[in-house]
Design goal:
CATH architecture of the largest domain: 4-Layer Sandwich
Radius of gyration: 18 Å
Shape: globular
Largest sheet: 6 strands, mixed
Number of domains: 2
CATH class of the largest domain: Alpha Beta
Number of strands: 13
Structural class: alpha/beta
Helix content: 10-25%
Distance between the termini: 10 Å
Number of helices: 4
């Protein structure tokens, strides 16, 4: 279920949304900060209450005291990135996001082009190779495969860069998660029960959203800005 599929929230203020969620979902709405990062037709406050277990959702680019106080630490969350292209600034943004959300690992969908000065970071990635990755760049780092298939949070997760292989090259089934990059444009959709995620790029964004990444947990997937951690789009897994 996508969070922007709640039409009753479309033109409501944040206070009205909190009241509506309390009535419809029986959720006790916590005190919120004054700033709001936008979802299509609603605010991040909505996501904070729909997914109260996910930590670190900010209401804008403010300080930590604006984080919803009812959010609990969620162990095992994975950060998703792609197309770092050796950028020191991109690595810095990803490290800050990993610390902010308390992620346990980072998935990278290719075109890492690792900088030797950050070899420990690149060595820690669950990565695949992209069209710009070259073997000689991976000195002391394992050259990644073209695809990976993992089992995370009860879902089969397929990772590939997206330059050579597309979803049609895999036997995808309902509940699977397909992660790719290459376009430098963030995308998060669900089609026929299959989840497709492109996290965009932390360094060479081709989107007006700027540098972006994604998160995966047992609750769902969501895209966020690496500049202020504001949520751009979210999809919760069907139960």
């Amino acid at each position: 279920m996508e969070t922007d599929s709640i039409p009753s929230m479309k033109n409501l203020s944040s206070n009205a949304m909190m009241n509506t969620l309390q009535q419809e979902k029986g959720i006790q709405a916590p005190a919120m900060g004054s700033g709001h990062a936008s979802l299509p037709g609603k605010s991040v406050n909505t996501l904070s209450m729909i997914w109260p277990r996910i930590p670190g959702i900010k209401h804008g680019a403010g300080t930590d005291d604006e984080i919803c106080p009812s959010l609990l630490y969620h162990s095992g969350m994975h950060l998703i990135t792609s197309d770092i292209h050796g950028s020191a600034e991109g690595v810095k943004l990803l490290q800050e996001a990993a610390a902010h959300f308390g992620t346990s690992a980072t998935i990278s969908a290719g075109d890492q082009n690792p900088d030797p000065s950050a070899s420990s970071f690149y060595s820690s990635l669950i990565s695949v190779r992209g069209n710009c990755d070259r073997y000689y760049e991976y000195d002391g780092i394992v050259f990644p495969p073209q695809t990976r298939e993992l089992r995370l949070y009860g879902h089969d997760v397929i990772i590939t860069h997206g330059d050579r292989l597309s979803p049609g090259d895999f036997h995808l089934k309902e509940g699977d998660i397909f992660i790719s990059g290459h376009t430098h444009v963030p995308e998060l959709i669900e089609r026929n029960g299959i989840y497709f995620c492109n996290p965009g790029s932390p360094s060479r964004s081709r989107s007006s959203a700027g540098p972006t990444a994604a998160l995966l947990s047992d609750e769902g997937l969501f895209l966020f800005s690496l500049l202020d951690f504001g949520i751009l789009k979210a999809i919760s897994f069907s139960r």
